[in-house]
Every structure is written in C-alpha cells, then in structure tokens.
C-alpha cells in the first residue's frame, strides 16, 4: 500500500469529546470516525486491525472445537418474552416495531436465539457437546456512550454458546473456553488477567472477566496478596464484621451546621475536621424507577450488584437499579445535589452494615449548604434493612485468606459465563438423556469485545507521539520512509525495499508523499507502525538505511543489502510472540 492512496486522514488536533488516549489517538491516526454518539465508522487502518483481531479469535475458537455461524441482528420479542428478559433486561435493549406492529429488538446478545435454534433442531444427548459462535455487530442503547470504542452503542462482538448434557460436561466446556481465551489474549500481546466477576443480566453462577491492565480502565480489580486470585470489585469477597451498636451509647443532640460549598465527602471532612469514616453519605437510586436511599460510610464505595441482590432477597421485585439523576435527587431531598441525608427523607432507606454500629455521625441535612451532626438511626430516621453493600477496595481483607487486597484498573475485553439451565428451563430446551428422560440443556456463553480490543490495545500501549501497536494487531507491520521524495536514487531504493518486503509477505506501507521528512515521521509515530525504515540520501551514499522499532524507540543503521531480511525476521518474531 502507498501512503499517497491510503485513506488515512490523520489530524493534528484532538477530538473535542475525547477523554482517554484510545479515543484521541484512533481518531487522530485515521482509524475511526464518529457517525453518532457511540456509533463509529472504521476506516481502512482501523478495519485491518479489527480483521486481525477477528482472525486470532477465529483460529483459537476453531482450535477449541467451536463452530462459526451467523444469527440475525433483529430478534422477535417472543423469544425474549420466553426467557423473561424482555422486561428484565432494561433500557439498553433497543425495542422496535415492524410495519405490522410486531415487537422486535436489536440484539445486544443472542442467548434466546441460539437456545431456540438448538431446542428446535437437536433431540438427543448423542448430538452433544456443541459450541456455536459468531462474530457480529451488536447494539446496546448505552445511556452514556463515551470513551470512543470503549463504551459505545454499536460494536462488533464474538459471542459463543456451549450446550452440554450435564453440569460436569458444561464445566469442562467452560474450562476449554477459558483456556482458549488465555491463548487469544496472549497472542494479541496483552498484559491481562482473568478475574472472577458478577454474571449481571446474562445469568448463571460462574463467570470470569478477561481484563487488560491499563491505568485508564473503567473496571477496578482487586487481587489477594497471598493467593493471587483476582476479582472484579463487584464480586470480591470481603471479610466484614457485622457489629452491633453499643446499647448504652448516649446520643448527642441533632444539630444543623453550615457547610457552604461542601458537596463531597472530602470537602465535608476537611471543613468539619471529621474523619470520612464518621460521615454517612446518602445515595439516591432508582429501583425500577422508584427512588430509594442507600447509606454508606464516607470512606466506603457502594456496590450496586450487592444492593440489587439485597433488594431482591428482601422481596422487592427489582429488575434495574441505577443512580438517580440530579433532577430526581433534588426532587427527593428538596435540596441541591451534595446535601442529601436520611433525616425526614420520605423514601425507603437501606444502610450498609458498617453504618449499624455508628453513633453521632454526620449526614447531609437536605438543605443547601447545611449538614447534620449527632445523627443516629432509629432516633432520627428508620432503616428498612441493613446489608452488605460495600465495594471491595485496596486494603480490605480477603474473606478467603485473611490477607489484604491490592488494587489496579482494567479494561474488560472478554467475559465467560456458566449459565446452567437458566435459559433452557425458561425456554423448554430439553434433550433426551442416556436414561431416556428429557433433561434441560446445560449452557455456557462466551463473549469477546472485538472492537473494544482495538481501544484496549491503544490504552495499554501508546506514548506522547502516538500508538505503539503490538505486531499481531498492527494494521501494517512496516512503513518505508523515503526522506527526499524528489531524489531519484532515494525513491528507487525505497521502491526496491518496498517490493522485496511485499514479496517476503511483510505488510508494508510506502510513504511516497511529497511532504517533508518531519511530516512522514510524525504520521508514522502517530499511526504506530511497529517498524520504520527511513531512507535518506546521506545514508544511502554509505549503503545504509535507518531502522527503528516503534516499541523500543532505538534507531540503528542497517546495510541496504540486509535490511529486508532483518525486517522480515523482526516481523516474524513479533508475530510469533
């Protein structure tokens, strides 16, 4: 490919809405362009990298015995109603009607479709195990699309579904997929970790996330310093003491104090000279649209997964739990955001276990620039129930080993689930077992965010000049940079090296543009070609060209006679890992 004809519109300026490196660099380097919020076109460079990601995934899925197929993106509501997820999935499911008024959804996932497919076409345990996968565009109506490809509405995903005759066989299929995922992300050159995670709306009782380690990752991961086991903070087991309040405690008087412009726990703590652990924050949530309050100690973070599980265990049929928007918070508390408190709050109040032993704590006063001191539950407000609502964090104690957690951030690029019979029971997907009895299928599902991987690779590997691609994911492996485009000898040597690299099977771009050398170097760094070959008249007079590996950053002079063989070796070793 020649740079003069490659459609790679690079930019000098960052996009105005870019908050993280991958969004900024993928736009600037000419890989993607936004069509609508959370929806992107992939330009030739971007799509080449996506296809390389797909190829690695396909090779390892096929190696693991899975079979590729294709399912429709538009799914009938009847299937989702069978599984019970038409209403339970929430607002991210984009619902639509056809011209006859029938209900459909744009598929965010395909458990229902594949379950009905297997149910209607297989009849005996002898036809199992089976694992079906596809690579397809999905759509989830993300409420706050941001971070470019990291949190989009439309994306490309690999989703696979295993079907087995019993739980033991299903766990074997799960283990096979887990091994395949390790191979996939190792081949892509990632620093990653598999962490135990919550199953969310998918269902089941066993799941692992594959997290690419990156400082800008949205997910917080904790790892036990003794066992090395890692969890998403939503899942990590914390050693929690369920302490009671001192029955002889003498309560202080409730007092309203002025706290001008103190909206956060840190600001209130500093202003009142009180530890964050003596402050209780009041979080307003919407449980299926109805407001509730959740109380957390000021130095703790809330875990919505635990809160939702507690609400359901308490008998509340709640499908969706989300933080309330500012307008709702102000309506419920009759105060600006940042001053919410439980006293005189007319909604159900749930409190974390850490609040139970507290006395004379600080809360918002439900008045602008006011907080309350000397607050006590039971006297100043009633708690509907206490529960474990804490999110694990660094320094918390692992419930399994008694050792502290360490914390880092990650980007989820893959997620695997053991589903059990959640969908087969709901959709009557049964096969005849060896004993002749009909039995529900044991299922697993396995997702990989194909286009998210593109962003994760950039987040994990970039510098101040641009992207630093791992060799397996780079759109092209090498760029040849003739530094004097009007010098016939320089251009002739560039053409020779370009042609011989192509003949050797190396993916190469010749920057044949008549622009200054500085512009060529800047674009080469921005796009992130793993290898650069710079050809100048001075070096050429001595039979040498300059070779640079993007990741290492070192430049070396190489003979024009050996440069093709040397570059081919570098590329081959980079692809082999």
- Low-confidence segments, ≥5 residues, pLDDT <50? none
In percent, how helical is the residue content? 25-40%
What is the count of helical runs?
Answer: 15
Query: Which shape, going by the Cα principal axes?
Result: globular
Strand content: 25-35%
Q: Whole-number radius of gyration?
A: 28 Å
Question: CATH-wise, what's the superfamily of the largest domain?
Answer: Bira Bifunctional Protein, Domain 2
Number of domains: 3
Describe it for me?
Helix 1 (21-28) packs across helix 11, helix 2 (44-63) runs antiparallel to helix 6 (167-187) and helix 2 crosses helix 11 (450-460). This protein folds into three domains: 47-237 and 407-459, 2-Layer Sandwich (BirA Bifunctional Protein, domain 2), CATH 3.30.930; 255-387, YbaK/aminoacyl-tRNA synthetase-associated domain (YbaK protein); 476-576, Anticodon-binding domain (Rossmann fold, 3-Layer(aba) Sandwich), CATH 3.40.50. The model has no long low-confidence stretch (mean pLDDT 94). The strands form eight sheets. Strands 3, 7, 8, 9, 10, 11, 12, 21 and 24 form a nine-stranded mixed β-sheet that branches. The protein has a five-stranded mixed β-sheet with strand order 16-14-15-17-20, sandwiched between helices. A five-stranded mixed β-sheet has the order 28-27-29-30-31, with helices on both faces. The chain is an alpha+beta fold and 577 residues long. A hairpin with a 5-residue loop joins strand 30 (544-549) and strand 31 (555-559). The protein is globular. It is built from 15 helices and 31 strands.
């Amino acid at each position: 490919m020649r740079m003069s004809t490659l459609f790679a519109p690079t930019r000098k300026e960052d996009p105005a809405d870019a908050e993280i490196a991958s969004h900024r660099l993928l736009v600037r380097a000419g890989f993607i362009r936004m069509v609508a919020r959370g929806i992107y076109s992939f330009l030739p460079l971007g799509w080449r990298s996506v296809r390389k990601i797909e190829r690695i995934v396909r090779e390892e899925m096929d190696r693991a015995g899975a079979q590729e197929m294709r399912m429709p993106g538009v799914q009938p509501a009847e299937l989702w109603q069978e599984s019970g997820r038409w209403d339970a999935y929430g607002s991210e499911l984009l619902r639509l009607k056809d011209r006859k008024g029938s209900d459909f959804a744009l598929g965010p996932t395909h458990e229902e479709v594949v379950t009905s497919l297997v149910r209607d076409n297989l009849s005996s345990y002898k036809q199992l195990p089976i694992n079906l996968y596809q690579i397809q565009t999905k759509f989830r109506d993300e409420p706050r699309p941001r971070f470019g490809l990291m949190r989009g509405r439309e994306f490309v995903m690999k989703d696979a579904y295993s079907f087995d005759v019993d739980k033991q066989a299903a766990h074997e299929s799960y283990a096979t997929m887990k091994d395949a995922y390790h191979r996939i992300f190792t081949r892509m050159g990632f620093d990653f970790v598999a962490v135990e995670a919550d199953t969310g709306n998918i269902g089941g009782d066993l799941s692992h996330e594959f997290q690419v380690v990156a400082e800008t990752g949205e997910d917080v991961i904790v790892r036990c310093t003794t066992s090395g086991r890692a969890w998403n903070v939503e899942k990590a087991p914390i050693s929690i003491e369920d302490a009671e309040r001192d029955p002889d405690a003498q309560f202080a008087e409730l007092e309203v104090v002025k706290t001008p412009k103190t909206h956060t726990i840190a600001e209130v703590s500093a202003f009142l000279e009180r530890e964050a652990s003596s402050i209780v924050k009041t979080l307003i949530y919407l449980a299926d649209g109805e407001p509730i309050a959740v109380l957390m100690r000021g130095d703790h973070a809330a875990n919505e997964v635990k809160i939702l599980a507690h609400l359901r265990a308490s008998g509340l049929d709640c499908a969706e739990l989300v933080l309330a928007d500012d307008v709702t918070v102000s309506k419920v508390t009759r105060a600006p955001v940042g001053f919410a408190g439980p006293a005189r709050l007319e909604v159900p109040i749930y409190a974390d276990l850490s609040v139970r032993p507290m006395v004379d704590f600080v809360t918002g006063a439900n008045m602008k620039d006011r907080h309350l001191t000397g607050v006590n539950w039971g006297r100043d407000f009633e708690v509907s129930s206490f529960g474990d609502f804490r999110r694990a964090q660094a320094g918390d104690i692992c419930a399994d080993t008694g050792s502290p957690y360490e914390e880092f951030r990650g980007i989820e690029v893959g997620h695997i689930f053991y589903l059990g019979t959640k969908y087969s029971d709901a959709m009557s997907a049964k096969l005849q077992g060896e004993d002749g009895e009909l039995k529900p299928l044991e299922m697993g599902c396995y997702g990989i965010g194909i286009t998210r991987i593109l962003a994760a690779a950039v987040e994990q590997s970039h510098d101040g000049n641009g992207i630093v691609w791992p060799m397996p994911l780079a759109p092209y492996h090498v760029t040849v940079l003739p530094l004097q485009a009007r010098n016939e000898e320089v251009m002739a040597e560039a053409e020779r090296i370009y042609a011989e690299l192509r003949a050797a099977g190396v993916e190469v771009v010749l920057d044949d543009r008549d622009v200054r050398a500085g512009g060529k170097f800047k674009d080469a760094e921005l796009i992130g070609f793993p290898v650069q070959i710079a050809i100048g008249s001075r070096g050429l007079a001595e039979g040498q060209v300059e070779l640079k590996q993007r990741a290492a950053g070192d430049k070396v002079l190489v003979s024009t006679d050996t440069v093709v063989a040397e570059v081919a070796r570098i590329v081959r070793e980079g692809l082999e890992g």
